[in-house]
Design a protein that fits this description.
about 150 residues, alpha+beta, four-stranded mixed beta sheet, 4 strands, about 25% helix
């Protein structure tokens, strides 16, 4: 049972304000005219169930969300074969080890590796753009609901 709020009209960004990618991505999101919700995981850490749902939404396991080379993860743990609950405990104690921000909009979610990727996630893309006669204004809003041309 999913616990993540999924609103088609609002972008939710889970990010760390201690990460340069997280801060840059949050800046891009704040500059949009979309309704947004920013969740700074270092101040408001989601529950283990939320992390499990987020990992599932982006098609990864919980440990794949973590930067195992992060200085807050000990050398012994970096290469350990831990259970998902163990990784969730690490996230609970040190949320800043999450590798990259995660953007959620409706049923879509993407882990954002570079800050500009978030623009592709919620801004106008080429899906549904129709060719117009010369002199006629093009349609610059999304005209398809379930299509999305983001590399997964």
């Amino acid at each position: 049972m999913a616990t993540i709020a999924k609103n088609e009209r609002q972008l939710t960004l889970y990010y760390s304000s201690e990460s340069s990618t997280g801060k840059q991505t949050a800046g891009y999101v704040q500059s949009s005219d979309q309704p947004i919700s920013l969740v700074d995981i270092t101040k408001q850490n989601p529950t283990p169930t939320h992390w499990t749902d987020l990992a599932e939404m982006v098609g990864k396991t919980v440990d794949q969300l973590i930067d195992k080379e992060h200085p807050d993860i000990s050398k012994e743990i970096q290469h350990a074969d831990l259970e998902p609950n163990d990784w969730l405990k690490i996230i609970a104690k040190t949320p800043q080890v999450i590798k990259d921000p995660i953007a959620v909009m409706g049923e879509r979610a993407k882990q954002i590796v570079t800050a500009t990727e978030v623009l592709k996630f919620f801004d106008v893309d080429s899906a549904g753009i129709e060719k117009k006669p010369v002199g006629e204004e093009p349609t610059t809003t999304r005209t398809t609901k379930d299509e999305n041309f983001i590399d997964e």
